[in-house]
Amino acid sequence: MCGIAGIFDIRGPSEIDRGVLERMTNILYHRGPDDAGLYVEPGVGLGFRRLAIIDLSDAGHQPMLSADGNIVVIFNGEIYNFQEIKKVLKDRGYSFRSHSDTEVILYAWQEWGEKCVDYFRGMFAIALWDKRSETLFLARDRLGKKPLYYGFLADGRLIFGSELKALLQYPGIPRDIDVCAVEDYFAYGYVPDPKTIYKNIHKLPPAHLLKIRRGEPVGAPEAYWDINFREFSSASQDELQEELIERLRESVRLRMIADVPLGSFLSGGVDSSGIVALMAGLTGESINTCSISFDQQDHDESEYAAMVAEQYKTNHHVKKVDPDDFDLVDRLASVYDEPFADSSAMPTYRVCQLARERVTVALSGDGGDEVFAGYRRYRWHHYEERVRGCLPYGLRKPVFGFLGRAYPKLDWAPQPLRAKTTFQALARSSEEAYFHSVSVLGDDFRKALFSEKMHSDLQGYRASDLLKEIMEKAPADDPLSKVQYADIKTYLPGDILTKVDRASMANSLEVRVPLLDHQFVGWAGGIPPEMRLHGSEGKYIFKKSLESYLPDSILYRDKMGFAVPIGSWFRGPLRERIQTALKSPILGDTGMFDMAYLERLASQHQSGVHNHSSALWALLMFESSLRLAEGEPFTRSGGLLKTAGI
Q1: Which of 337, 461, 556, 604 is such that its CA lies 20 to 30 A from the CA of 284?
Q2: Which residues, 6 or more positions from 474, have their beta carbon under 8 angstroms from its beta carbon?
Q3: Going by C-beta distance under 8 Å and a sequence separation of 6 or more, which residues neighbour residue 320?
Q4: Is the sign of the CA dihedral 613, 616, 618, 621 positive or negative?
């Protein structure tokens, strides 16, 4: 795994400042501590940091040039089927000097141009310079496992890199905050693609490429792949289960190819346990597995991880996470560069830290919930859609809207008695209802949180617009597939994969995700909805497929997750920290927030009147991110933080 960075003058062959390129590249040292390289010519600069995984010799050094010197590539990721592509290219007359997948990218471009990405099976962020046509080509993998940021500057240059921090090394880059991205962040807990927190910097979306030819107008990124949820298989359940295991086994096998120590995360959940089970059948050696444990019994899965480790005789390593492991709070801002409010980033960081002590590559079970409908919210959305389908919106909205307002909020009560949220959901459209089920902070909360000036600057933009547009355009007809598609386009790359990529690369660890092999995901999209969500059982066919590999106590127990006791932290060790953050001039100077409301949030939470832990955590991460950026000051105007539209 690696880090890439670059500078491209779209207008012409100007001088590239090598020192700036070095800073952009070297700040990504954690992504590639084994090697570094630069390529500079008039108008083009490419930088690279390498974490050696395959072909550990110098032949895998990047930037890599074609034999004739006309094509240069830097690449973050792995092309798992590079040997197959290499054979095709050899048959067409190409000669290879290395055993690396990077060289395959060079000649795949030479043979197929931008269509080369159609042949790649893996995770990647690619930057390629073709001197012959004076073209810069950027591409990102289909599911968004590897990140790629880019920005256009007033001087006619494009800069790009694996992380935001690389771009921020460029002198004078505008750091104006995008107020729409702030609205998105406080709704979703992350900034969804293609936005970043900065107005002039963007993420290349998953399954997109950007082709820029010098001297020509720059177009928008183009999609090259999508998942289809409309064409369902007519195979029997038994046949689908057999094919699922066969396809997943192949995906796991491809991801076990490495010239360095390899292992797997093992949480004790269905997904990671299934991956370990299939890994064990593909090797005669004991697998290295890693997990973390918690003191809170209702969130600790370590005993289940130990069961799987014992069953498959893995070299299992466990580390207990201190329930007061809040030392990472400020570290997170430097890891994620922009506000990121998923508190499970902390235990994710720790398990990556543990894994890196023993391996350089780890497989994970990420993606199973999105691909096979494992989240509880899918079940509730499915039930609500049945009711919504029985009553027209014109009737539902006033009836359930009234009930939602009139019914008391009973957070303390058993689930069946907490009807207020259900009534509110039934009064909304499908898209609005699902948006509220995934929101960190709902519409009413954000309305109170933001200042009048912020609402004015948003000019009517609402975070739900993003999800609504995706669901309306989804290549799916049934309600379950629509929300799965929405999560695959937003939550998966924006939260789950971002969390794992930054936490793992901060520890110089490569994480591979077999369940998100694009061929496997594309095939899974053809599984009928009732075999993904069967009654109240999410991931139904996935669990049935694994019954001969794992006990029912692993497959059919209630789902857990990485839980962090942030609520108690804000009443204890982080009490003063959150109070200081909410009164910070860094937040006040933005003009975005109702500062009196922020103080009320902290007071109500710390007194125990309300649990505002999610809102306080999101605010703390936002403040921490801005405070980190203050180390290299934002653009200021009249002493105030300058923001887009403010």
Answers
A1: 556
A2: 229, 481, 482, 485, 486
A3: 292, 293, 294, 295
A4: negative
The continuous run of DSSP H or E covering 446 comes out as helix 443-449
Q: Residues 370, 381: contact at Cβ < 8 Å?
A: no
Domains of the chain in sequence order: 2-223 (3.60.20.10), 237-372+488-555 (3.40.50.620), 376-456 (no CATH), 566-641 (no CATH)
> In a 10 Å sphere around its CB, with 0-12 CB exposed, 13-18 middle and 19+ buried, how is residue 246 labelled?
exposed
| Cis ω for the linkage preceding 13 (within 30 of 0) | no
The Cα 201–Cα 193 span in angstroms is: 11
Q: Kindly state the greatest CA–CA separation across the chain.
A: 74
Cβ neighbors of 359 (< 8 A, separation 6 or more) are 260, 261, 262, 263, 288, 290, 509
Tokens at 100, concatenated: 């690396």
Contacts of 486 by beta carbon, 8 Å cutoff, 6+ apart: 434, 467, 470, 471, 474
Q: Which residues contact 86 (CB under 8 A, 6 or more apart)?
A: 96, 104
Structure token pair of residue 465: 């617009």
> Could you tell me the CA-to-CA distances from 168 to 149, 156, 634 in Å, in that order?
11, 17, 10
pLDDT of residue 417: 42
Residues acting as catalytic residues:
2
Residues belonging to the chain: 646
CA distance 492 to 485: 10
Q: What is the pLDDT of residue 549?
A: 98
How far lies 624's CA from each of 21, 181, 203, 333, 611, in Å?
27, 16, 21, 6, 21
Tokens of 310: 């014992």
CA–CA dist 420, 389 (Å, integer): 20
Contacts of 566 by beta carbon, 8 Å cutoff, 6+ apart:
343, 574, 613, 616, 617
Distance between CA 35 and CA 37 in Å, rounded? 7
The DSSP result for 220-286, as a single string, is --EE------S----S-HHHHHHHHHHHHHHHHHHTT--SS-EEEE--SSHHHHHHHHHHHTT-SSP
Q: What pLDDT sits at residue 619?
A: 97
Q: With a cut of 70, list the residues of the chain below it in pLDDT.
A: 1, 54-59, 296-299, 323, 389-425, 427, 561, 631-646
Neighbours of 586 (CB within 10 A): 17
Q: What is the pLDDT of residue 644?
A: 31
- pLDDT of 641: 33
Specify the pLDDT at position 320: 84
Alpha carbon distance 489, 78 (integer Å):
21
* Residue 610, number of CB atoms within 10 A of its CB: 13
Separation of CA 276 from chain center: 22
Q: Among the residues of 78-208, which ranges form H helices?
A: 82-91, 101-112, 164-167, 179-188
Distance CA 421, CA 424 (A): 5
The residue written with tokens 């599911």 in the block is 143
pLDDT number for residue 639 = 27
263 phi/psi in degrees, rounded to 5? -155, -155
